[in-house]
Design goal:
Chain lengths: 447, 447
């Protein structure tokens, strides 16, 4: 019991202290062997992957797991027991079981991998319970919810982290490194997006994990009812780092335009029997949503949300400045498909392959963790983000992607819906920092 | 003199007749050896190229040329005399000399290659003078001017043609052919743009032709004072053909967002002496302008105007439908850089090179004129468009890119300025057809 109290004190005082004081990292204090105890909420396809990666981290133990689907819960408990040797406590009897998990005294933090609409409410609940929270990505349901996230952080001072793994892509971090070294000059324009043919998964509500949850998952529900940029953070996160959003810069306004909705119903007609109960859903979500953001520092960003038409995968990253340009050449599958042009350095009017630049400007984080990252999932990005989350807990420090980042990036979804629903009207972007963006400094990839 | 009267009667009655009647092409009537007499207005860099291509066409003679720069005028007269054996009359004593040229009784048509802001006024003057007019591309100065173009056509019934050569690109015509054969399913989204590093030319006002006109040409003037999508038709023309704009479809509204303006002043600082008089121009034009259009039939189009930053050339074409997607992979220099994905036909999640598709679905126009086109300028597109213009005169038929197309495509410029100047507000698109778009049929590439 004394140990538990000690731990709670560690979290609460540590977190509060980290605002004002710089605490030497535990690893420098020789305390790195102290186990960080985590709970995982939501263990479907994505949650299972994150659970596996979490257990690869040194001196981390998963003490509690939560899922309202008994099969998911049991599979997770079995997996943890097999890997760690000890069976974690399970939660999931009812929709609010995660609150019981959050009440535990022995947890340092939680990782939230639930459906989109639960990310922000659960993160808020975790902060209120004094637990470091890391949440998976997705759209906010409302701008108000984003404010609640920020306000809860400011009241509790318990940090939370958005698990935007795309910020940790090796090429994105190398590009960020190059930007910070001035190789692109002054940044002017960026593009990003999420191009991924998810027609079957959306229509059938199929997940990818061990779950047999069946039809009608969160993607389906949101595509059926909403119409906006519903998956903004994979695209925008890395670009926000490039443009120092809320850290010297800020989004001024956005406009959003949705195409008609045809892809999902066409796929259903082509692939489902006429009696299939999911064949005639009326999908509100337009197939392609284009969102254009203007920043206070004058840059523009174009985002594309494209998961309802046939296409090879692409994240559509492009970074353009007064001295050069980098872009993914349509296909995001490899660094070979990524090209760069540096004014006065590249052969005139000719792209160069990005590969050698990625090696030359490799981000220090990737240099340090190359082996561990490469042997983990999602190109190493999951390992790197979870490692940083656990390091924040251990070091009682603030996360590199915080409540303000989460609020702004996830707010793009309801703001784009507001623009689309008013004929692409420009929507002013809320200042979740209440003015602090003018003096805040960039932190991602700098610690 | 009787010959001249006959010719004027030919044009006027022929043009009027073509509205209601289908006249058998002259070529089928054995009259194809009749010379079509043309005047060329504006003979700088682009005009010289068009003059050369015009003289490659069979049974075409250039009778009159006009340029207010004596060196340009003399060079053009010399060139025509050397090529055709007869020296054309020259016009250019004053800014309105082109009106004197238009008064000639012996001209069937004129080709207008003057600075941007003169295209529409000169086309209007040509229609009023009863001459078939073909005008080079550029932005309209105002929406009102576009209406005047359409109204003049409706009053005079003298056809005019927009010389949008990008509509004739071999790959664009093959893609159009594929769209019409249903290979992409129902079209949903397109992109296009004009990515061309013109910093030196814009800042110094340098042309590319034989002219020594010097500093401050039209690009410079427009970039110094305006801020919008100032070069819309190369990008939008081919996409308008894909989407049947004003021929069963129509643009509903657009939004436009401009980045800050840095590229031109940075280039000037890096490349001009501190005493150079063009070093400190205050450029209004943002470096990157993004314009998003929504169509009545539900499609979206994203256009990018990008000529003030370092970059390899790209036209950024992309066509996406329920059954597949075609895109230029960043670099517009060759068909090898263009890729395609057809649902259920291409290897899953993998792009295929577009080359074999371009051959398989080669447009009939390219099949017919491959040799002539390939040996002419701009990848054959100038030859094809001028050939069609001359064929229209000869056959007394309507041009494939008409006054309504010119008005709508060129109007994107002032409409985008209106959006940018009101914080990216959506701007309703005028209906230049006064309702006829609902029943008009596509004509480009179908005659």
């Amino acid at each position: 019991m004394s140990k538990t109290i000690e731990r709670r004190t560690f979290i609460k005082s540590g977190v509060a202290a980290s605002i004002a004081l710089s605490t030497a990292p535990a690893i420098l204090q020789g305390k790195d062997d102290r186990k960080v105890k985590l709970g995982i909420i939501g263990i479907g396809g994505r949650g299972t992957g994150m659970l596996k990666t979490t257990m690869r981290l040194p001196n981390v133990s998963v003490t509690a797991v939560c899922d309202t689907f008994p099969r998911n819960l049991k599979a997770a408990q079995d997996l943890v027991e097999k890997t760690q040797g000890e069976r974690p406590d399970g939660y999931g009897d009812h929709e609010l079981s995660y609150l019981d998990l959050l009440e535990r005294d022995d947890l340092d933090g939680v990782v939230i991998c639930t459906p989109w609409e639960l990310h922000i409410p659960m993160t808020i609940a975790a902060m209120k319970a004094g637990k470091y929270a890391a949440t998976e990505v997705g759209p906010a349901s409302s701008v108000d919810e984003c404010w609640e996230l920020v306000n809860t952080y400011e009241e509790t001072r318990v940090p939370c982290m958005l698990l935007e793994n795309y910020c940790y892509f090796r090429y994105n971090m190398a590009v960020l490194n190059m930007i910070r070294q001035g190789l692109f000059g002054e940044l002017i324009h960026c593009t990003c997006g999420y191009g991924h043919d998810l027609r079957e998964r959306i229509v059938l509500g199929k997940g990818t994990g061990p779950t047999a949850k069946g039809e009608g998952d969160y993607r389906s529900t949101h595509n059926e009812h909403r119409n906006g940029e519903l998956y903004p953070t994979h695209g925008f996160g890395p670009i926000a780092q490039c443009l120092n959003i809320q850290r010297g810069n800020r989004i001024q306004h956005l406009t959003s335009t949705a195409s008609k909705s045809r892809g999902l119903s066409q796929w259903s007609k082509d692939n489902l029997d006429s009696s299939h109960k999911r064949r005639n859903i009326r999908w509100n979500q337009g197939d392609i949503v284009t969102t254009t953001l203007k920043c206070f520092n004058g840059e523009t960003v174009v985002m594309t949300f494209d998961t309802r038409l046939p296409r090879p995968m692409s994240f559509m990253y492009q970074v353009q400045g007064t001295a050069g340009m980098w872009m993914q050449d349509g296909d995001s599958s490899s660094k070979e498909k990524s090209v760069i042009y540096l004014d006065g350095k590249s052969p005139k009017h000719q792209w160069e392959p990005f590969g050698p630049f990625q090696e030359k400007y490799e981000h220090p984080l990737w240099k340090s963790y190359l082996h561990e990252a490469e042997t983990a999932g999602h190109g190493g990005t999951d390992f790197l983000e979870l490692r940083e989350f656990v390091a924040c807990i251990r070091n009682q420090s603030l996360p590199p992607i915080d409540a303000y980042d989460a609020a702004a990036w996830m707010a793009i979804a309801p703001l784009s819906e507001a623009s689309i629903s008013t004929g692409s009207a420009p929507i002013a972007f809320p200042d979740f920092t209440d003015g602090a963006w003018m003096t805040n400094k960039p932190i991602f990839g700098l610690t």
